[in-house]
Amino acid sequence: MQLFYELIFLLMGLCVGSFVNMLVYRTAVSYGLEKDKILRKVKDGKRSERSFCDFCGKQLHWYENVPVVSWLIQKGKSRCCHKSLPLLYPIIELVTGLLFVITVSQLGLTLSLIPGLVLVTMLVFSFVFDLKYMLLPDFSTVIMVVMVGILVYFGWGQVSPLQYLEAAVGAMGFLGILYLVSKGKAMGFGDVKLAFFMGLLLGFPSIVVAFYVAFISGAVGGVGLMLAHKAGRKSLIPFGPFLILGTFIAWWWGKIIWYSIW
Ligand SMILES: [Zn+2]
To answer: What range does the domain containing 250 cover?
Structure first.
């Protein structure tokens, strides 16, 4: 039975991952970071709410829009105009599917699963958006803060809500100082706002684990990128994805990691 549930949530996660890909694109369009390809193609100016091809704006059939499967069958190309579809699409779908399975195994089939899954969805969205556009959309952070509030209401918290609030303010203050000291070079203000959410979700000591993972993986990622660019060209890397990676690890395994170290 357990396996049956996990399969259902895996499939659900694949579809939600597909939704995240679409949300990233539409948010980028509304922020003016990406040109709206479909509006250029549709003559009467009425945009379709159905999925469309990234390149020519043609409406997709349902079978061209099956998470992961369509990408594999079409060998990573669009059926209509044979352009390469980003590998990031099926990866996001798969990762979201796996995260859904982990979330249901951690939270169980309880009411807190609903805000938990919304939270996971927005974390994946913010991760991808920051990776692509170096920006953490505020609306995503706000939704996540609200979801944590609902989680705490359903009794997710192991300590008092006040202690979570203290961790949130502390985490925001910590990144806020780094933001000010580095004059916004080490991270953006979106990361500072994300830190508030992280503290609120994780509390102490898991928030420390999250930052630890974020800074270590960020340093490794930064060095890796520098080596890839060899010439040492100054390229900015977003910090948000590393913070979100740390959030996932600390959310599910923070206490285990903390108490195995100390
Ligand atoms: Zn096309």
So the answer is: 110-262
Q: What is the largest CA-CA distance in the chain?
A: 64
The angle formed by the CA atoms of residues 206, 248 and 135, to the nearest 5 degrees, is: 110
| d(CA 32, ligand 1 centre) in Å | 22
Domain boundary among 108, 143, 169: 108
Mean pLDDT, the chain, integer: 88
Examine the domain organization and report whether 152 and 230 are in the same domain.
yes
Q: Kindly give the distance from the C-alpha atom of residue 195 to the centroid of ligand 1, in angstroms, as a whole number.
A: 39
Of residues 229 and 124, the one with the higher pLDDT is: 124
Residue pair 23/127 in contact (Cβ under 8 Å)? The answer is no
pLDDT in tens, 170-190: 999 999 999 999 888 888 999
Cα distances from 43 to residues 33, 36, 117, 118, in angstroms, run: 22, 13, 38, 36
What the block records as the tokens of 19 is 């939704």
Per the confidence metrics, is the pTM higher than 0.70?
yes
Q: What's the CA gap between 32 and 46, in Å, rounded?
A: 19
CA 240 – CA 133 distance, rounded (Å): 11
Asked if 244 and 236 touch (Cβ cutoff 8 Å), the reply is no
Q: Are 250 and 202 in contact (CB under 8 A)?
A: yes
Confidence check: pLDDT of 132 > 60: yes
Q: Looking at 64, 86, 108, which one is the last position of a domain?
A: 108
Neighbours of ion ligand 1 (CB under 5 A): 53, 55-56, 58, 78, 80-81
Q: Say how many Å lie between the CA of residue 53 and the centre of ligand 1.
A: 5
